[in-house]
Design brief:
Elements lengths: L1 H22 L1 E7 L2 E6 L2 E5 L7 E9 L6 E7 L13 E3 L10 H6 L6 E3 L4 H6 L5 E3 L5 E6 L2 E9 L8 H5 L3 E9 L2 E7 L20 E3 L18 H11 L3 E2 L14 H8 L16 E3 L1
Parallel strand pairs: 3-6, 6-7, 7-8, 12-13, 13-14
Antiparallel strand pairs: 1-2, 1-15, 2-3, 4-5, 9-10, 10-11, 11-12
Amino acid sequence: MRTAINIILLALLLTAQVASSQTRKSLQWIGGPTFVLHLGSFKILTDPMLGPVSDTGFMIKKHPSTGQLNAPIKRLAPPAPLDTSRIDLLLISHLHADHFDATAKSFLQKQLPVIAPASNRDMLVQWGFHNTRGLPWTDTVLLAKGAETLRIIAIKARHAAKEPLNSELGEVNGYVLEYKSGRSSYRIYWSGDTVWFDDMQNLLQYGRIDLFIPHMGAVGADGHIGRRGLNTAETLQIIRLLQPSLIIPVHHTTFTHYVEPVSVLYNAVHQTPFKKRIVKVKEGKIVSL
C-alpha cells in the first residue's frame, strides 16, 4: 500500500512540475543585448556578449560617435552568471561586434540551434554553428514540445534612419515570439537594433504584445555619422503604438558606446499612462513575466 501511495505521490509531483514548467515565464538580463528567456519549457539566449569587464570589450570597425577606425569599446559591467545548459535556441538580431563577441564564439556549444538574419547564416556556419537557419523578414519558425509551441517571426528592423549608413550597417532582425500552452498565449516583441520607421505600423497585425524589449542607448547620437538605434522619443512612439503590458529595456549601461542613459527612458515613461508597465532591471536580475 505504501509503495502504491508513493508512486501516486511521485506521479502527482511530476505532473505538477510539468505544469509549472509550461506556465513559467521569465527574463534574465545578462548585459548589453544579451538576455535569457524562459517561456514554459523553452529556453532562449539572445545576442551573446559574454566577455569580462575590459577596456577592450570588443573592437568596432568605426566608432559610432567619433568615427575612429578599429576603436576599442569598454565593457563596464561583467556579464551576469549564465546557465548555458538546455538552451533550445540561440536567437540573433545581427552579427555586429557588440552583439556576438569572441568569448561567446569559443564558449557556446556549436551544436546549438541558431536563428539569425538570412545574410548572417554563412558567417555563423564559418564560426562552427552548423545548425543555423537564416530567417528573412516575415518568415516564421515553429518549435513544439508536447502541448507547448513557440512561434518565431522575423521582423524588419532598420539600423539607421538615413542612407547610406543604414545600408552600410547591413541586415538586422527584430522578432515577435508567440508562446502558447493550451489555451494561453504570450507574445513578445524584441526590437533588435532599430530606429523608428513607418513600417512598424505592421507590427499591429501580430496581435497584442505582452512584452516589449527595446534596444536602448541611442548609439551614435552624439556624433556626426548618425544615430543607429532607438532613443527615448522613438521608443515612446512604439509603446504608444503597441500598448504593451510590460516593457523591459536592454542594450544599455553595459558598454561605453551607449550614449543615452536608460534613466531618460524611465523618467519619460513615468510621465505617461504606461508608468507602471516599465521594469528597471540590473544585470543578473530575473523578472517574472
